[in-house]
Write a structure and sequence with these properties.
The protein is an alpha/beta fold. It has three domains: 6-64 and 254-333 and 449-496, FAD/NAD(P)-binding domain (3-Layer(bba) Sandwich); 115-130 and 144-247, no CATH class; 335-445. Helix content is 31%, strand content 23%. The chain contains 15 helices and 20 strands. It has helices spanning 6-13, 35-46, 89-97, 143-160, 182-185, 192-197, 204-218, 227-235, 257-267, 313-319, 323-332, 398-407, 410-422, 456-461, 481-496, and strands spanning 24-31, 51-54, 66-68, 73-75, 80-82, 101-104, 110-112, 123-127, 130-133, 249-251, 271-272, 276-283, 286-292, 299-309, 335-346, 359-362, 370-372, 384-392, 432-445, 468-470. The strands form five sheets. Strands 1, 2, 11, 12, 13, 14 and 20 form a seven-stranded mixed beta sheet that branches. Strands 9-8-16-17-18-15-19 form a seven-stranded mixed beta sheet. It is globular. 48% of the residues are buried. Bound molecules: flavin-adenine dinucleotide. Flavin-adenine dinucleotide (FAD) is lined by residues 12, 31-37, 54-57, 62-64, 77-81, 256, 275-277, 310-312, 315, 319, 338, 340, 390, 440, 443-444, 472-473, 479-481, 484.
Length: 498
């Protein structure tokens, strides 16, 4: 069991407070070293604004954390980025700066570094007793069912190109750029399953497939996820590249840990890890920040002119007392726990069908399948792998799921992991070298109806103190890299504008 660091995180819940006697002056402080906080740091650094980034864990990365063993590096959370939409200028610039985009062709389409584009075979699905290529169900489907799946996908292609009465894309990334056309926003009032059941192409294969997709990106089942968000999954991405297909993904053995390393590198001198912020107190002279080092229990204090809080809202509430914000978060935000297992193993015996791929999904299962971290290595012979298995604990009552997860012993988790893997590898025990398990207690917020287009996110994004700015993916309502990037960038810009 390797984390997450619940002991340290729960210190805040238990009311433990750092008790600094002196406060060192710093221009700007960023609390939280996930992608949002790191991107904010990158922007401040580019603009030569002095800052300090405080992260509670022993390493930055947050949900994009990664690990390693003698076989390879592997992700503990976020593991890929899709091909970005071509008009996200700052994001494309970032990818270019980090060598992921290597230039542009004569049509101004980005040229991606081949080594980072997911190698063949990208995805496979175990369905009706066989591995098929791709994740959209097709093997063993009746012609009638296949036609229904095709109709749904065709509609998604139409929605990708659709704009609202305000001239904006109906579904865009970041979500804040999407159209506010009331006709389409109505979809945020119902669940994805309600919408699907109204369609002529509704069938159990689509129900299953879309449920996999919403659980995969949002940790939320089709039965709880907003229909607007469910459709956003399929229709918001319109990216094109010179040497990629639009459904290709960019990935590395360590997943988005690669991007964490890139972001960390340039600002490493401004990062303080093992720095748990327990209290934020705006005073006339600035903002006081109390920090506890959970390793040696030493308290430190900072006094800053501006502050970026890049922590999830349930934590922001505990470190900065603000009754109205706290009430909104409590009544509207529900955080899904996730289990991630990294299994170091020898090459297992494959059941016939499509070969071992980067993403390997079993139709209608509890897990979302496993990603093969060694897939992206350049070695010609790979005899050991790291399979990263993802299980969102996405049953309806997230709090009960979290409590159950907290109390479940490691042996039970191992049984569950094994049970999932044995669906496709009956003799998998003989391949296992080690299993490591990480439980994210509050991995991501559920985009239930009314969250993304209701009044809550707008209220929470507005700061009651002009010196304090917020940045976290949960303020977007969905947890994806691009949203974290723009959350961080916008908070830094607000900060730079004073
Ligand atoms: C299992 C899983 C898989 C995912 N897969 C993908 C994927 O493949 N692609 C994708 O785009 N997205 C994926 N995501 C979404 C991912 O959450 C986002 O892409 C992004 O990494 C979120 O960054 P963030 O900075 O907004 O939040 P976080 O990662 O939550 O960062 C918040 C940071 O604040 C720190 N912190 C909290 N409290 C304090 C405190 N009091 N003091 C100091 N520091 C504090 C935390 O330790 C953490 O580092 C996945 C998420 C999970 C959980």
């Amino acid at each position: 069991m390797v984390g997450a660091n619940s002991k340290v995180g729960h210190l805040i819940r238990e009311g433990v407070k750092a008790n600094p006697t002196t406060f060192t002056e710093v221009d700007t402080v960023i609390i939280g070293g996930g992608i949002s906080g790191l991107v904010a740091g990158r922007e401040l650094h580019k603009n030569q604004k002095p800052f300090l980034l405080l992260e509670l864990d022993k390493e930055v990365g947050g949900n994009a954390a990664f690990g390693s063993n003698k076989t390879s590096e592997y992700p503990w959370g976020a593991h890929y980025i899709p091909i970005p939409n071509n008009y996200l200028i700052e994001y494309l610039q970032f990818l270019e700066e980090e060598g992921i985009i290597q230039g542009y062709d004569e049509n101004q389409l980005p040229i991606y570094k081949e080594e980072y584009v997911c190698f063949d075979s990208q995805e496979r699905l175990f369905i009706n007793g066989k591995w098929q290529e791709g994740l959209v169900p097709k093997f063993g489907l009746l012609a009638e069912d296949e036609a229904k799946v095709a109709s749904f996908l065709k509609l998604m292609e139409v929605l990708k190109e659709k704009k609202g009465s305000d001239g904006k894309w109906i579904f865009d990334i970041p979500i804040a750029n999407s159209s506010k056309d009331e006709e389409w926003l109505k979809l945020d009032q119902i669940t994805m399953i309600e919408w699907l059941k109204q369609q002529p192409f509704f069938n159990s294969y689509l129900e299953n497939y879309i449920n996999y997709c919403t659980r995969d990106d949002f940790g939320t089942s089709i039965y709880e996820c907003s229909a607007w968000i469910g459709l956003h999954y399929f229709a918001a991405r319109k990216g094109k590249g010179a040497n990629v297909k639009s459904d290709d993904v960019i990935t590395w053995p360590e997943g988005n840990g690669f991007l964490v390393k890139k972001l960390r590198e340039k600002i490493k001198d401004q990062i303080r890890t093992n720095a748990l912020v327990t209290e934020v107190k705006p005073v006339e002279a600035g903002i006081k920040i109390a920090v506890l080092n959970p390793i040696n229990n030493v308290s430190t204090g900072f006094l800053c002119k501006q502050l970026i809080i890049a922590t999830p809202q349930f934590i922001t509430n505990r470190i900065w007392e603000h009754k109205e914000r706290a009430a909104l978060v409590k009544s509207h935000f529900e955080y899904v726990p996730w289990l991630v297992a990294n299994i170091n193993c020898s090459t297992p015996l494959e059941i016939s069908g499509a070969p071992l791929s980067w993403d390997n999904v079993c139709y209608s299962s509890l897990s979302l399948g496993y990603v093969n971290a060694t897939h992206q290595l350049l070695n010609q012979k790979i005899s050991e792998h790291n399979f990263t298995l993802y299980i969102p604990l996405s049953e309806k009552d997230a709090k009960a799921q979290r409590q159950k997860a907290y109390e479940t012993p490691i042996e039970k988790w191992k049984e569950l992991v094994l049970q999932e893997m044995k669906r496709v590898y009956p003799n998998f025990e003989s391949n296992i070298i080690s299993i490591e398990i990480l439980l994210w207690g509050h991995a991501m917020v559920k985009p239930k109806p009314g969250l993304v287009h209701g009044p809550v996110l707008d209220s929470l994004a507005k700061s009651p103190d002009p010196r304090i700015h917020f940045a976290h993916t949960d303020l977007a309502g969905i947890s994806i890299f691009e949203e974290a990037f723009y959350q961080g960038l916008n908070a830094a810009k607000n900060c730079l504008n004073g």
